[in-house]
Amino acid sequence: MKLSSISFALVLALFPRHGTSSPHNRRDSSTPTEEQILNFALTLEHLEDAFYTQGIQKYSQEDFLAENLPTWARGRWTQIAEHEATHVSFLHSVLGHQAVKPCTYKFPDTDVTSFAAVSFMLETVGVSAYSGALKYLTSADTIASSGAILAVEARQSAWINSAVQRANPWNTAFDTPLGFNQVFTLASAVIVSCPSTNMPLPVKAFPALTFPANARPGQTVQISYNASSTSDEVYVGFIAGLGATIVPLDCDNKVTIPADLEGVVFGIVISSNTTIADDVTVAGPAFLSFDFNSQGQSI
């Protein structure tokens, strides 16, 4: 079963040909509290828990087999659902009465194929969320438990893309840490509303960014977003691993995707050709998956 890459309104370039920066040198001065970070993690875990609960209820073993998935695939997703429920319980026990409650969601999956695609995206973004948050944590216990959850999310993401989608189990030598607002932008695509009693979190969603569904490295594609910039020139940053490649976006919203990208890449529209940060973000990020085989060839 091979799934096409998807873009939800989500490169490594150690020796780039274009302007580069570390995407995680945030220029904002706000530092979230550990309680806010854990509640943000719980917000994401609630989302994953709800997604898998509805998916396992909605799709039977026969539905999975009809998509030519192995007999054990649904059982593995049931185990993933149990993991996410455990993460929710664990974070709730740490936060106590301060713990945020689940939101209302609208998930885009309509069949087992799209369920698998959304699952891969959620697990991969979860890895980026925990990776990006670790630098703000101060408690040794919190760092250790967050790292333990991150590792499970990474294993689950790798299993989905390799055992199920029959593609690459990893992207580059580094996973991609994302900032809180970048992660929330991706998560907000499926969040309808949240309880008014939840602790306010210091996050915001940027306007959604969409790439063509079958966009591939080396192609010139037209992207779409509903936002304006005060800058005369706008760019697209392609983030993966610990670096980024930044390329121009023309007046028709067309951009050439760098040919050397592979694996999961986060595309983001920015007003700077040298850095990726919240204060220069126009739209995105968008989730892109450029699968490759064991020979490093695009598939």
Reconstruct the topology from this structure.
Layout: H1 34-58, H2 61-66, H3 73-95, E1 104-105, H4 112-133, H5 140-164, H6 180-187, E2 191-193, E3 209-210, E4 220-222, E5 224-225, E6 234-240, E7 243-249, E8 254-256, E9 263-270, E10 281-290
Antiparallel strand pairs: 1-2, 3-5, 4-8, 6-7, 6-9, 9-10
Organism: Paxillus involutus ATCC 200175
Protein name: Protein rds1
Signal peptide: 1-21
Distance between the termini: 13 Å
Percent helix, as a range, is: 25-40%
Low-confidence stretches: 2-29
Radius of gyration: 19 Å
Determine and state the CATH class of the largest domain.
Mainly Alpha
Largest sheet at a glance? 4 strands, antiparallel
Task: Please list the strands of the largest sheet in the order they lie side by side.
Answer: 7-6-9-10
The amount of beta strand, in percent, is 15-25%
In the CATH hierarchy, the architecture of the largest domain is Up-down Bundle
Total separate domains: 2
Mean of residue pLDDT values: 90
The CATH superfamily of the largest domain is known as Ferritin, core subunit, four-helix bundle
Secondary structure class reads alpha+beta
Shape: globular
β-strand number: 10
Count the DSSP helices: 6
Description:
The chain is an alpha+beta fold. It has 2 domains: 34-193, Ferritin, core subunit, four-helix bundle (Ferritin, Up-down Bundle), CATH 1.20.1260.10; 209-298. 36% of the residues lie in helices and 16% in strands. It contains 6 helices and 10 strands; from the N terminus they run H-H-H-E-H-H-H-E-E-E-E-E-E-E-E-E. It has a 4-stranded antiparallel β-sheet with strand order 7-6-9-10, with helices on one face. The protein has a two-stranded antiparallel ribbon with strand order 1-2. The protein has a two-stranded antiparallel ribbon with strand order 3-5. Helix 3 runs antiparallel to helix 5 (140-164) and helix 4 (112-133) runs antiparallel to helix 6 (180-187). The longest helix is centred in the N-terminal third of the chain and has 25 residues, at 34-58. It is globular and about 50 Å long. Residues 1-21 form the signal peptide. Keywords: Signal. Pfam families: Ferritin_2 (PF13668).
